[in-house]
């Protein structure tokens, strides 16, 4: 059931190529090792067919001093080359907990240097106080809330979707 005052969204109604949209008035937060790592009401979200939304936060709303460049990179046919970020708080390390696009392709320039976090690699992600479920698999970083319905790409047997 969707959060009060919100309608349900099917990921099968999301566009391809993906759309980027602001989410004004929604508070997006990330916690790790007892620390609030990011808090923003200026997030963007990317909507793509068969995927839960991915929330991107402006660097000014992230404790970027806790991030160091991680290993590897990936390429999205729509957004371009992604850079990965390790998150460290005290002695706890979350490798490749976040990613960003330092030079996104046309149509996705709004995402430049914004940071997206994998909800399964940190302790807690919330949207307006609602705990987020992580999208299955270890590649996609979708955030599943009560207003989002699937089925979702990412789990076993969905690679060919």
Task: Explain the overall architecture.
By secondary structure, the chain is an all-beta fold. It contains no helices and 15 strands. The strands form four sheets. Strands 2-5-6-10-9-8-7 form a seven-stranded antiparallel β-sheet, with no helix packed on it. A four-stranded antiparallel β-sheet has the order 4-3-11-12, with no helix packed on it. β8 (80-89) and β9 form a beta hairpin. The mean pLDDT is 94.
Could you list some keywords that capture this structure?
161 residues; mainly beta; 15 strands; 4-stranded antiparallel beta sheet; Metal Binding Protein, Guanine Nucleotide Exchange Factor, Chain A; single chain
Task: Tell me the series of helices and strands, N- to C-terminal.
Answer: EEEEEEEEEEEEEEE
Low-confidence stretches: none
CATH architecture: Beta Complex
CATH class equals Mainly Beta
- How many helices does DSSP assign? 0
The CATH topology is: Metal Binding Protein, Guanine Nucleotide Exchange Factor, Chain A
- CATH H level: which superfamily? Domain of unknown function (DUF427)
Strand-residue fraction?
A: over 45%
Structural class: mainly beta
Shape: globular
Q: How do the strands line up in the largest sheet?
A: 2-5-6-10-9-8-7
**What number of structural domains do the residues give?**
1
For the secondary structure, the number of strands is: 15
Quick check: average pLDDT?
94
Largest sheet: number of strands, sense, barrel closure = 7 strands, antiparallel
Q: How helical, in percent, are the residues? A: under 10%
